[in-house]
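> call design_seq(struct)
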């Protein structure tokens, strides 16, 4: 299934909520609409697929525990064909499930019971980051490193063979932050501040999982990475020379 992902900041953002609990769905939909967003709620994977065939969405709020195909499977399937931001919503509160959700491509993870304002803040943050980097005023020109090209405006990563590489919102933001600070040791807290990538769980574990996923996409040898070096007791450092295109 091809997932249509709108990223036009000048339009009202449209949110798809996949949640089978009617009370929670009604509460979230009301909150989204009160904040000026368009919102559609469905209760299963099949209904989600049908909704996405009819219209495009800017973000998906996805419950992990659904009848039939569960949220983790849906997340993996969505991420295979789209960079649409995904917020996992679940009653499972342990660290392993948070990490699994991120590893499958979720951009953020909210545990039930949750405060509506917290969920709204995370949704707004992801929408800002997905809007062609509009909230990143510095270094908007494309950059090149070791044959790769990253474009902050179009939010595209192109490998040395000229092929577009699919990335989640958080993965792209982390790589962009590293490219904007080559040769500098970036702590996990700094990366969190620049990208909000640690919202889904503990700062250290969330950043580390995203870094691992970025390495899988750009490093020749993930076990001995040459682009993103781990600095013991420090954080991470981006080693290639970065130049503006």
């Amino acid at each position: 299934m091809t997932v249509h992902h709108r990223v036009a900041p000048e339009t009202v953002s449209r949110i798809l909520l996949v949640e089978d609990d009617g009370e929670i769905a009604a509460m979230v939909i009301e909150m989204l609409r009160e904040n000026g967003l368009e919102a559609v709620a469905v209760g299963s994977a099949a209904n989600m697929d049908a909704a996405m065939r009819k219209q495009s969405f800017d973000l998906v709020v996805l419950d992990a525990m659904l009848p039939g195909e569960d949220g983790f499977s849906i997340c993996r399937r969505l991420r295979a064909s789209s960079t649409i931001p995904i917020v996992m919503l679940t009653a499972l509160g342990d660290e392993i499930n948070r990490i699994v959700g991120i590893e499958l491509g979720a951009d953020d993870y909210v545990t039930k019971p949750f405060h509506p304002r917290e969920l709204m803040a995370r949704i707004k943050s992801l929408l800002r980051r997905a809007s062609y980097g509009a909230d990143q005023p510095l270094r908007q020109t494309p950059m090149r490193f070791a044959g790769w090209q990253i474009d902050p405006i179009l939010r595209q990563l192109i490998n040395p063979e000229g092929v577009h590489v699919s990335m989640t919102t958080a993965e792209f933001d982390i790589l962009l932050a590293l490219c904007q600070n080559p040769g500098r040791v970036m702590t996990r807290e700094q990366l969190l501040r620049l990208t909000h990538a640690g919202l889904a769980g503990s700062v250290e574990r969330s950043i580390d999982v995203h870094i691992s996923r970025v390495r899988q996409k750009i490093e020749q040898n993930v076990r001995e990475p040459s682009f993103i070096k781990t600095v013991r007791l420090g954080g991470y450092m981006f080693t290639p020379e970065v130049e503006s295109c």
